[in-house]
Request: fold
Amino acid sequence: MRRERMLAVMRRFAILGLLLSAIVLLRQTEPFSERTGGAGMVPAVERDDAAGVEASAALRPVAVETRDSGGATAVSIWDGETTQQAFQRFSAILGEALGSAGAPEEVSEAEFRSALSGEHVFFQPGAVYPLELMSEWLGIEAGEGRGHSADLLCLGVADGAVALLFREPDSGFFRCSTAAQAETLSARITEFRGPAAAFAYENPLLEGVEPYALIPGAMPEIRALSAAPVAEAVETNALIAAVGMNSRVVTSYYDADGTLVLNEDEQTLRLGSDGTLLYRAAPAEEDEGEQELTEAVKQAFRFAEACVRRGSGSAELVFAGVERDENGRWTVFFDYSAGGIGILLAEGHAAEVTVDGGAVRRAQLYLRRYIWGEDSVTILPALQAAAAYAALGGAVPTLAYLDMGGYVRCDWVLKNAEKEGAWRTNVWNASYF
Amino acid sequence: MENKRLERIVLLILLLLNLFLLVIVLGDGLARRQAENDTRQKLSALLAENGVETGPEAELIQSAPYQCGVNRDFAEEERRIEGILGRHDSEDLGGSIRFYRSDQGQISLRGTGECEMLLIGGWTSSSRSREKVAASLFRHGGIELYEDGWKAGEAPNTVDLCCCWNGYPVYNAVLHFDFTPGYLDLVSGTLVFSNLSSTDARTPMDSVTALTRFVTLMKQEGIICSRLERLTPGYLMSVTLSGESTLTPVWHIETDTFELYLNALTGERETPES
Reply:
C-alpha cells in the first residue's frame, strides 16, 4: 500500500517534470524561439507617444556656421536635415553654455564681430528665441540669461574659455562667460564640414544688407515643393481629437459659406473649406493663475502640431515667436518649413495659438499639405542676391518657399517695410505677397 | 485502477512528446550549426576572392546590438560617485555640469558625458597591472569597461579604454587613465550615461551583411588589405541633448592595414568622433 502510494507520487512528479520539459523544449523550437539580437538585445522601452512630437522639435535653426582656429569656415544653411544634424553636433555644448552662463554683459557690436573673427560656432535660430525657452528645449535649466531673447547666438573660444554671445533685437549685443569646455568645442568645430561662408558685413559691397546674413560659397540643392489640395490637409475626426473635443457629443452644422462649425460645451471649432481652422474655448478663470513661458509654448506647440500632424506632408512646424499681452496671455506663432527653408503664406503665420490659465483658449491655423517634387529649382546664388538687396538699399536676405495658393515657388524675398507681415515676391519686381 | 492506467497513458504521451521535441530541437541545432558553417565558408571564400585572408580571431557569424537611447540618471550617478569617492559633497555648476568632491578626490561630470577625475593619494589594487587598477576603480563605481580593448595612451604612463553598454564596447566613449608608477591619479574622457530611455525596433545588419558591405567598400574606395583580423560589434555614442545620447550599433572591422566602423543600420562608414 505504501509502495503503491510512493509509485503514484513518483508518477505524478514524472508527469509534472515531463510537462515542464516539454514546455522548455517547445520554446526552443524555431517557431517559438525568441529572435536573438546577440547579448545586446536590450529590453524594449516604450516611449510615451501620447503627447506626440516633443515641443523641442520646433527648434530648427536656419543656419550653423563655424570658424576654426586656422580661420577656415564651414556652414550648413537652407538644407534642413544637414543643418539639423549640424545643430545636434553642437546642441549639447550650447545647452551647457546656456545653463552655465553668467550674467549677460552688454558689449559693443565690434566685440561681437571680434568673436566672429576668431574660433567660434554661430547659430541663426530663425526666430527671436527667449533664452529660457531654448535652454528648456536643449534639456537644460536656463542660467542667468533668463529674461533675455536672441535672434543670433555665438559660442566663441578665446583664451581657453568659451563665451556665449548673442544679439537681442532692440537691445543690443551681450556676452556671458560659461563653463563649457573650450577643447570640446574646438574639437567639434574642427570636425564640422561644409562649404565656406562669410558674413555680409565682411563684404564692403554689401552695405546696408543685414550684416550677419551668411553668404555661403556654394548653394545647397533646393528641391521643388508643391501644395496638395487643401482637402488632403484636413481630417475632421483627427482635428476634433486634436483640439480635445469628443466626437460623440460634438454638434456640427455648415455655415452659409461652407464652413464646418463644431461645438462642444464652450469649445467651438470652425473649419473653412480653404483650410482655415479657428478654435475658441472659454476664457480662463481669474484664479487659474499665470503660466510659465516654456509650459505655454509647449502646450501651444502640442495643440498646433496635433492639428497639422497628419496633413502637413513634407513640411513641419517651426517656432516663429511668442508674445505676452498685458493680461498675461501668451500667443505663440509657428510657421511651416520644408528642408530648412521657411514657407510663407499670404495669410501670415501658419499657426497662432493663445494660451491662458494652462489651456489653449484661441487658435488660428492654416492647414496645408506640401509634397516634395522630383526636381531641383535654380536659385540665384546668395552673393548675387545679397548684392541685389544692397542695390535696393539693404534688407535681410531671405530665401523662402512662397505658397501662392495654387502652387509653391522658391525665391529670394524682401520684407515689405510698409506693411507688417507682407513680403515682396522677389527683389526685382514690385509684386507683393 | 483507472487513475493508474490514465496516468501511465499520460506519462507515455508526454515521454513521446518530449522525445519528439528533443529530436526537433537537436535537429534545428544541427541545421543551424551546419548553416553557420556553410555561411562561414562562403564568407571566407568571398573574402579570399578579394585577396583577404580570415584571421583566427575573426568571428564571422555574429549579430549586432539594437540602437538605443540612454540618458543621465542623477540618482544613479550619485551612487556611482559614492563608490569611487565615498561620502562626498556635490555642486551643480549649471548647464548640467556637476562637481563632486571628497577627501579621496574630485570628479566633474558634464551633460555631454565628459568627465574628469582627480584621485588624491591615487588608487591602487593588490596587483601591479594598470588595467586591473583601473578596472578595480570602476567596479567600485559600477561602471562597465570594455576590458578586451586596452590600448597604450599617447602619453607615457597612460592607457586608454572604452566604456561598455550591455557588454558591447562604445568606441567613442574613451577613458584615458594616467598613472604615476603604481597609482592611478587622473582619469579623463567620456562616460556612457547609465539609464536606458528607448530602444529602436530596426534590426541591425548581421556580420554577414557587414562583411559583404565591407567587400563592396573595398572595391569602391580602393582599400587594400590582406587579412581580416577582427570583427566586433559595438556602439558609437552621439550626444544630441545635454544628458541624452543615442547609441548607434556599428561593426568595428580591423584588418592588417587599417580599421573602420560600419553603421549597422545604414551600412555607411562612420567616424568615431567624441
